[in-house]
Design goal:
The protein is α/β, with parallel strands linked by helices and 283 residues long. Helices cover 44% and strands 13% of the residues. The chain has a seven-stranded mixed β-sheet. Helix 4 links the parallel strand 4 and strand 5.
Length: 283
């Protein structure tokens, strides 16, 4: 093997170990993307998994607040990063996707980019990729939380506060979490109880949620809201069922699940649609 051949083989091996980042996709070819690493790339989403915003029942205040904040951002005005926190299955992630769709209809160029929690350390590279683009981007992290010895939260400061370099003005961050402070309460209490200075033990992690300008809380729904969710889905899908039967089946369904939420309502509607031979399609 010649020296040149050896150099070529070494270069190829290094490229396999650390491949170059993929070229940026056509940002105007899709309204939504998923951020991947190894190599860094934005993958277009042909069809976003979402429901129309008018079918999200019982979260009117959160809906109106998020849509208005999103519209401000999309039109170039000041807007806040948002933390949507609270009960499971009550439409936090659904609202983010629905609000994006509702505003993007009127303001072209608003993009939704999903980033996984485990990819947060790469967020600085993502910001650099989006900086200067003519489109505006909602970075969306679903089910965000941090455990003991989890340092991923430090990466969020680049998007929430900015570092030496200012955060791109065309980027905003929305996150959902079941925890208001993004970490378990028992972990907060344990660290406070065992620390030399309890007030500082978890301040850095707890204060992370304070860096979100908007907190939108989601709480368990009551029975009437639960039934209204189901009725809205049935109307949208054209499912024919009497009010008495619907009410009786829906109450039995939530009792067997031991909970009421938008997710449980949709699961009942899925079962009902299957029994009636109706294809689920809300968008």
């Amino acid at each position: 093997m010649t020296g040149d051949e050896a150099l070529v083989r070494i270069a190829e091996a290094l490229e396999r170990i650390n491949p170059p980042p993929s070229a940026m996709p056509d940002l105007w070819g899709s309204d939504a993307f998923v951020w991947h690493t190894d190599p860094d790339r934005l993958t277009p989403v042909p069809r976003v998994n979402r429901v129309p915003i008018e079918l999200l029942v019982g979260i009117d205040r959160a809906r109106d607040t998020l849509v208005e904040n999103t519209r401000q951002f999309a039109t170039g005005f000041a807007a806040n990063n948002v933390l949507l926190w609270g009960a499971r299955g009550m439409g936090k992630s659904s609202l983010v996707k629905a609000a994006h769709a509702a505003v993007a209809v009127d303001v072209p160029g608003l993009k939704l980019v999903e980033i996984q929690r485990e990819d947060l350390p790469s967020i600085g590279r993502l910001l650099n990729a989006l900086r200067g683009a003519k489109a505006r981007f909602i970075l969306f992290c679903d089910d965000l939380s941090f455990g003991h010895d989890d340092s991923h939260y430090k990466s969020l400061k680049a998007i929430l506060d900015g570092g030496v370099e200012r955060r791109p003005e065309n980027v905003i961050f929305y996150a959902t979490s079941n925890r208001r402070h993004l970490m378990p309460r028992d972990m907060i209490e344990n660290e406070r109880g065992s620390a030399i200075n309890p007030s500082e033990a978890v301040e850095e992690k707890v204060s992370l949620s304070d860096r979100f300008g908007l907190w939108l809380g989601f709480h368990p729904c009551d029975q009437e809201q639960f039934l209204a969710m189901i009725q809205g889905y049935c109307d949208a899908l054209g499912l024919a069922v009497s009010e008495d039967v619907l009410r009786a089946e829906a109450i039995e369904w939530q009792q067997t699940r031991g909970s009421r939420s938008g997710r449980v309502a949709w699961q009942y509607v899925t079962d009902l649609a299957g029994r009636q031979g109706v294809v689920l399609d809300l968008g």
